[in-house]
Design a protein that fits this description.
Elements lengths: L5 E7 L7 H11 L5 E7 L5 H7 L5 E6 L4 H7 L2 E2 L1 H6 L4 E5 L2 E5 L2 H9 L10 E5 L3 H12 L3 E5 L3 H11 L2 E2 L15 E4 L26 E4 L8 H8 L3 E3 L1 H17 L5 H9 L1
Parallel strand pairs: 1-2, 1-3, 4-6, 7-8, 7-10, 8-9, 10-11, 11-12
Antiparallel strand pairs: 3-5, 5-6
Helix pairs in contact: 1-9, 1-10, 5-6, 5-9, 9-10
Length: 274
Amino acid sequence: MAGTVHRLAVLGHPVSHSRSPAMQNAALAALGLGEWEYGAIDIEPGRFEALVRGLPDEGFVGANVTVPHKEAALAVADEASGAAEAIGAANTLVFERGMIRAENTDAPGLLDAIGEFAGELAGRRALALGAGGAGRAVVWALAEAGADVMLWNRTHSRAEELAAELGVEVIPPELHGEVDPGAFDVIVNASAAGLGDGDGLSSLPLDPAGFRPGQTVVDMVYGKGPGTLVEAARRGGAETVDGLEVLVRQGARSLAMWTGREPDLDVMRSAARA
Ligand code: NAP
């Protein structure tokens, strides 16, 4: 219908720090989709389901979902993709034909961000750091790509639970600072270590001197600049991918689901990094 605004938003708590509105609105504008708009809604956990059920009547066609609502987003949906079901969380909702559909673009977004190397992960050694919502998506994505995945988490019991659920191995808890990063072809930090521009590397089990050329290191956490993990990886000659690139890639997949159009990644990158 002419003049109808197609509304989108990121739902989180807190959410004011999110780069998604700037990134998604820039991509929508570049596609000439002037009748689409993307906002941010701060919603407390107890009110999430009621809010989501009311969104379609307010002109919303979809949403991104971030901490702490990704599991609730899967639970509220009428149908879900296989990835969202297996990961146990959704970061994307699509409202169509009176239904709520849950998707997870965090997992394929991570593989997009890794680039061509993602197609060569079968049989490679991968280390996932973190067993929260992001860790679940990362472990699933790496394992689905055929990598031989090991998992570490600050709270070891959580690592053991997730590893058992997704069929991967765990790093023993006593190896703090002694895990050789050079033993892995790909390392993904999906823990909050480094959030707030702190020294993320010191909270992780890795020997800072062990990074090497030929490996890829991804830090999902993003801040004002590269974190200490990415800095150490670069010093060792590793390829690095930062959290803003992962944000762009998951967001691009979400936008394509809502609009049926492929966004300009450079437009999204510029807006996310502005
Ligand atoms: P979450 O569900 O709250 O889980 C937090 C995880 O971080 C847990 O594994 C927790 O370990 C660990 N952790 C917290 N503080 C730590 C520290 N100081 N040292 C080591 N580990 C620590 O959060 P999430 O959704 O998984 O997100 C994790 C991080 O990924 C966040 O920083 C988020 O911003 C980032 N992220 C980025 C993207 C992106 O697109 N770039 C997407 C999703 C998430 P315990 O189990 O021991 O508490």
